[in-house]
Structure formats: structure tokens, C-alpha cells
Amino acid sequence: MTTVWGAFDRFLAGELPLEELVDWIAGTPALADVLAPDELRRLRLIHPTAPDAFRDATASVAAIYETHRPGRLPRDRAERIARGMLAGDIDSAAGTRALARLREQGAGWIPEAFTGLAAALDDLPEPSVDPLGDAPGFAARVTAALEVARRLRPPALVAARRLLDRLKE
User: Fold this and answer.
1) Are residues 93 and 164 both part of a single domain?
2) Residues spanned by the domain of 36
């Protein structure tokens, strides 16, 4: 089951499309137990095809999140990503990059290992201008990417465990 804050975080992180957020809001009666009536009404009025819908929805969701969980979004996001990595629900390379970005945005409590691991992922061979015209090169890049991801997964998971331990303190 997706929590209210998990769904809002995924939307704010760009992982949940606006249309899916609107559907989730419409299909989640438990929101009435968590949000104030005016907050819920504001969310239910979001229409994905309206002008500025994404901008307005982002502002509303961010304001509601901050009202109920002041200053918690970075920690909540880091915890969600680390747990997802350990559970196998979030790809370790994608999670590593996301946690490195959070650290770069000021979340210094995220282990620095994520920055180094993300940099190693960035060291993959550059794609050619025309991947279809360079099938052997494309295959080599895919093989290299898979090897890097395989090699970096164990230290990324160790760092994710360390992060969760830090968040418990």
C-alpha cells in the first residue's frame, strides 16, 4: 500500500505522473483521514489537462507535504529510496544516482559513498551519434553498463543500509 507521503514524494520526485496522482487521489478515501478538508478539496480539483496543472499540482502537493511533515521531505525520500533499493523495488543504479543528487542538494547526512558510486556510473562509455549504425559499439556499451551496475550493486546496498541506520538515530 502506498502511503500518502510516499505518493506525494514520488510525484514531487518526478516518478509519478500527474495523471496517476489524480487517479490515486480519486481512489484513496483514506486521504480524508490525513488531510484537512480544504487540502483534499484542492487536490481533487486538479485536472491534468488544465493549463498550468502540473505547476499548480506540484505547488499544492509540496505545500501540503511541508505543512504536515515540515522539513522531512529529503529524509523521507532518502529512506524510501534506500528501502526500495534493499527490497529490490528500486534499481540500485537509479537509487544511487537519486541519493547522490540529494546529497549534492545539501543532505550531508547521506553517506558520501553514493557520490562516488554515482560518479562511477557516469564513467560508462559515451554513446555513439548513431547507435543503430554502431551495433557492436552499442552492444559493448550495454555490456559495460551491466558490468558496472553488477559491480556497484553490493556497495550501494551497504551504503543504503548505513543510511537507514543513520536515519534511525
Assistant:
1) yes
2) 4-68
- Write out the three cell numbers for 159: 551504503
Angle in degrees, CA 129, 147, 99, rounded to 5: 85
- Rounded to 5, what percent of the chain is helix, strand, coil? 70, 0, 30
Q: Are residues 164 and 112 in the same domain?
A: yes
151-165: per-residue pLDDT in tens? 888 898 898 999 999
Decide which of 68 and 124 is more confident.
Answer: 68
Whether residues 36 and 99 share a domain: the answer is: no
> Residue 137 CA to chain centroid, in angstroms?
31
Sign, CA torsion 106/90/167/76: positive
CA atoms of 34 and 79, how far apart (whole Å): 21
